[in-house]
């Protein structure tokens, strides 16, 4: 059983991941010159879209952000902060947001897989739910932005989710407690994703010959 302190830390990190994902939605909306409503919509679908699909598929009720509206306030606050930050002529190093996104991705994968297992899903389904939780929101964001979703291109993103989900479910299968399994999974996702970011790694593309 998890300690209250660990549960609280995971919750705070979950909110941090929500803010990071929402901010990536803000950036896409800004690039497309959307109005404030467009910014909020893209921020919201990026941050909670994957978790919403997961909860609908596994039959979780109520959906997590309906049960805890703190997620919505974090999204609104991030959208407002992002629109303000866009007017500030100071830029962060290019790697800050991708690395923060990788951390949020690692945590979202574990949360999605864990929740699926709690609702009686098999290990394979839990891995799929982890991938959906981590990458589903970005996929919806890119579709709304009329772009080819990043997870369907050469970017090593969904691959990191799959790897992390397998590590988590396998660790539990072999008798590890939740916390060690969570840490192993998150480290696996971070290792794959951060390595791909800094070394500019990508998967080979599939191309049909004429």
Automatic annotation (TrEMBL):
Can you tell which superkingdom this protein's organism belongs to? Bacteria
Please provide the record's keywords in A-Z order. Cell membrane, Membrane, Transmembrane, Transmembrane helix
Pfam families reported for this sequence: Gly_transporter
Compartments, record wording = Cell membrane
Q: Key word Membrane present in the record?
A: yes
Q: How does it sit in the membrane?
A: Multi-pass membrane protein
- This one is known as Trimeric intracellular cation channel family protein
